[in-house]
C-alpha cells in the first residue's frame, strides 16, 4: 500500500480509525462513520479493509531466513504478571555477543508485524526480543479486536512492570554485549518513553514511534532518544511540546523527526496508513541511531 492508496482515502477515515484503534469508539461506530463518506470508487468494506491490518503484507524477513534464528523465551516478572514470554530472534553469526534491542508492540499484543520488525533487526546484527503483553492471557489471539480488548483488560502497571523485567532480562542475556536499545510503536512508543524514564542507566538508546510521554519520571531521562512522529497524528503530537520542554529542562539527549503527510502508524506496512518513503527513512535513521549507540 503506497502513498497513492493513502491519498484516495479521506483523512477523516484515518482519524476515525485512530480513534477506533485506541478505544475512543467501537467498531460499529467506526463503520457507521465511514458510511457517511462519499468515497469515489471505494466501498465502505474496501476502505475499512485497507485501514485494518492485513498481516500477510507484513513480512520483509521470513522466519526461515538463513541469517537468523527465531525462537521464544520466557522471563521472570515478579512485579508484573509473574512470568513473561517473547519472540527472540538471533543473528546466525552472532558469535559470543551482540547489541540487544527490545521491540515493543502496539495496544493489541505481539502481532506478525512486530515479529517481523524483530527479524529485521536480527538480520542486521542485533539480538531482538519482542515480548507479548498478553502472555498471561494466553498470548496474542490472532486478531486485533480481541487482542485490543485483552490488553485493555490487564492492569497497565503490571504490563509496564513486565516490560521493565523484559528489558532487564534482555540486557543480562548471555548473548548481550551490555548495550540495550528499545524501539516501540504506538503503545510501544509510550513503553519506550517509559523505559527511558524508569531505567535511565540501563537503556542505552530508545526510539519511540508516535508514542506519548511517560506518566512519571521524565525528569530522570538521560537519553539518547530518537522520537519519530507522524505529521497528521494530532492525538500524540499534542503531547510533544510539554514533553520536549521537560527533556530540555533535564538536559536529556534527544532528537525528533516529523514525517510530512503521514498518519499514526505510518511504519506499519500491513495497512493503508503505511507510507513507504517515510517508513524507510525513519527506519534507516533508527538503525543508524542504534549502530551509533549500541555497536560502538
From TrEMBL:
Keywords: Hydrolase
Gene3D superfamilies associated with the record: alpha/beta hydrolase
Domain called YqhI: residue spans: 1-33
Protein name, as recorded: Dienelactone hydrolase family
Organism: uncultured Thiotrichaceae bacterium
Residue span, Dienelactone hydrolase domain: 85-293
GO MF term set: hydrolase activity
InterPro entries reported in the protein's UniProt record: AB_hydrolase_fold (IPR029058), Dienelactn_hydro (IPR002925), Dienelactone_hydrolase-like (IPR051049), TAT_signal (IPR006311), YqhI_dom (IPR057802)
Transmembrane parts of this sequence: none
Amino acid at each position: 500500500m503506497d502513498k497513492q492508496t493513502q491519498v484516495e482515502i479521506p483523512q477523516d477515515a484515518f482519524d476515525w480509525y485512530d480513534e477506533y484503534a485506541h478505544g475512543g469508539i467501537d467498531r460499529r461506530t467506526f463503520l457507521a462513520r465511514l458510511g457517511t463518506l462519499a468515497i469515489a470508487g471505494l466501498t465502505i468494506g474496501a476502505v475499512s479493509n485497507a485501514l485494518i491490518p492485513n498481516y500477510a503484507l507484513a513480512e520483509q524477513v521470513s522466519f526461515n531466513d538463513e541469517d537468523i534464528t527465531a525462537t521464544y523465551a520466557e522471563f521472570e516478572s515478579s512485579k508484573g504478571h509473574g512470568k513473561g514470554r517473547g519472540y527472540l530472534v538471533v543473528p546466525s553469526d552472532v558469535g559470543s555477543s551482540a547489541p540487544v534491542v527490545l521491540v515493543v508492540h502496539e495496544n493489541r499484543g505481539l502481532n506478525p508485524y512486530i515479529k517481523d520488525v524483530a527479524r529485521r533487526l536480527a538480520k542486521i546484527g542485533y539480538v531482538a526480543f519482542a515480548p507479548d503483553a498478553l502472555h498471561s492471557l494466553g498470548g496474542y489471539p490472532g486478531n486485533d479486536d480481541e487482542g485490543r480488548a485483552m490488553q485493555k483488560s490487564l492492569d497497565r502497571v503490571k504490563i509496564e512492570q513486565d516490560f521493565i523485567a523484559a528489558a532487564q532480562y534482555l540486557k543480562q542475556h548471555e548473548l548481550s554485549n551490555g548495550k540495550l536499545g528499545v524501539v516501540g510503536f504506538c503503545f510501544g512508543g509510550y513503553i519506550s518513553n517509559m523505559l527511558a524514564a524508569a531505567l535511565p542507566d540501563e537503556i542505552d538508546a530508545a526510539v519511540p514511534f508516535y508514542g506519548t510521554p511517560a506518566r512519571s519520571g521524565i525528569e530522570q531521562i538521560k537519553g539518547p532518544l530518537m522520537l519519530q512522529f507522524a505529521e497528521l497524528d494530532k492525538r500524540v503530537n499534542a503531547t510533544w511540546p510539554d514533553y520536549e520542554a521537560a527533556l530540555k529542562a533535564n538536559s536529556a539527549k534527544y532528537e525528533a523527526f516529523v514525517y510530512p503527510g503521514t498518519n499514526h502508524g505510518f511504519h506499519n506496512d500491513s495497512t493503508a496508513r503505511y507510507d513507504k518513503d517515510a517508513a524507510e527513512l525513519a527506519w534507516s535513521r533508527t538503525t543508524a541511531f542504534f549502530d551509533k549507540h549500541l555497536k560502538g
